[in-house]
Amino acid sequence: MRIEYINPFVEASFDILNEILGTSVKRGQLYLKKLGESMKGVAVVIGVTGQVTGRIVFDMSEATSLKLAEKLNGEKFDDFNDMARSTIAEIANMITGRAVTKLDKEGLAFDFTPPTIISGTNLNIYESEMEALIIPLDTGMGIVEINIAFKE
Amino acid sequence: MGILIGEDGLPVGKKSTGGNFKVLCIDDSQFIIKQLSQIFMSRDFEVVGTAINGKQGLELYKSLYPNVDLVTLDITMPEMDGLETLQKIKESDPNAVVIMVTALGTADAVKEAIKLGAKGYIVKPLDREKVLERIGQILK
Hints:
The structure holds two protein chains of two kinds.
Chain A (H helix, E strand, L loop, with lengths): L2 H19 L4 E2 L3 E3 L8 E9 L2 E8 L1 H12 L8 H24 L4 E3 L3 E4 L12 E7 L4 E9 L1
Antiparallel strand pairs in A: 1-7, 2-7, 3-4, 3-5, 3-6, 4-8, 7-8
Helix pairs in contact in A: 1-3, 2-3
Chain B lengths: L2 E3 L5 E5 L6 E5 L3 H12 L4 E6 L2 H11 L5 E5 L7 H11 L5 E5 L5 H8 L4 E4 L4 H12 L1
Parallel strand pairs in B: 3-4, 3-5, 5-6, 6-7
Antiparallel strand pairs in B: 1-2
């Protein structure tokens, strides 16, 4: 995966989370994830097309997703309800949109699908011929891992 | 139909000719609809309808017509996307005032929307003051 395709997603994740949460988000070390390794519990999947084919998964625990949704809505949620899901999906949408805008400014054409949320225990993603790059972000309300797998 | 500007420089959802500005919000995100509704209602705009996809939004626009002064329209939506919805709303009412709400800042979709007759666009994440400033500029 080319770094010029990845960097806009790293920067956009960092910028959007800092803007909307009003906190200081910390970035952890990037690493590669093996296929089939389990996800944390709530995964927002966005398909990407254009210069590459692939997807981005925003992976977090349900506890983290609830804390983020509560912070952005200014209200307490007892469970991962429709509004909480919509909030988490929109965060992923905003990050991807910002990244695609940055890529567009560099003359790179990317497009993306509306977000899909998958939640549950023991979630796994299996893909052939793809290796996922993980960008861990500590939001102060839990870790959100940006999981990117692109194929040229 | 000018819009009134408050002492804080931000628009108030009241028409200079009397009555409130009526808004229809079309977005597949409940979260964005909630945020926009809160922003509009905090300034006396009247949110007369919300829809979660383009198809529903178009039907709602037609049924509410002529009692909609402003439509906020998401670009990326399932069923019928924002561009197709914009085109159909403009076919049905060439004078419709539509503002796109998008996570994309410069992409072709935004340029296409302007070509199709959108009055402007707002980029997410939504900041209350920036949204109101933009609405004020567009509706003045």
